[in-house]
Amino acid sequence: MSLVSIIIPVYNSEKWLDRCIESLVTQTYKNIELIFVDDESTDKSIEIIKNYQKNFDFIRLASINHAG
């Protein structure tokens, strides 16, 4: 089974993030990695992703830093 990488851009997405992640982690195809790319969110998006990371080892988090 091939690994499928799913990249999800995130910016202040706390309202929809739980629904998005739940949909992805309940897929029948299990050889996946979820890569969330945060663009300096100011809401609880990062916290939500980190909470899911505790239970799912295929969730990754990357952050964009515009400060340099």
Can you walk through the features of this model?
The protein is α/β, with parallel strands linked by helices and 68 residues long. It is 31% helix and 28% strand. It has two helices and three strands; from the N terminus they run βαβαβ. The chain has helices at 14-25, 45-53; strands spanning 4-10, 32-38, 59-63. The protein has a three-stranded parallel β-sheet with strand order 1-2-3, with helices on one face. Strand 2 (32-38), helix 2 (45-53) and strand 3 form a beta-alpha-beta unit. It starts with a strand and ends in a 5-residue tail after the last strand.
Which features characterize this protein?
alpha/beta, 68 residues, 3-stranded parallel beta sheet, 2 helices, globular
Please state the average pLDDT score.
Answer: 95
Order of helices and strands: EHEHE
- The helicity comes to 25-40%
Strand content: 25-35%
| Uncertain residue segments | none
Q: Any idea what the radius of gyration is?
A: 12 Å
User: What's the overall geometry?
Assistant: globular
- End-to-end gap: 39 Å
Structural class: alpha/beta
Continuous helix count: 2
> What is the β-strand count?
3
| Main sheet record | 3 strands, parallel
The main sheet orders its strands as 1-2-3
Please describe the topology of this protein.
Elements: E1 4-10, H1 14-25, E2 32-38, H2 45-53, E3 59-63
Parallel strand pairs: 1-2, 2-3
Helix pairs in contact: 1-2
Briefly summarize what is shown.
This protein is an alpha/beta fold and 68 residues long. Helix content is 31%, strand content 28%.
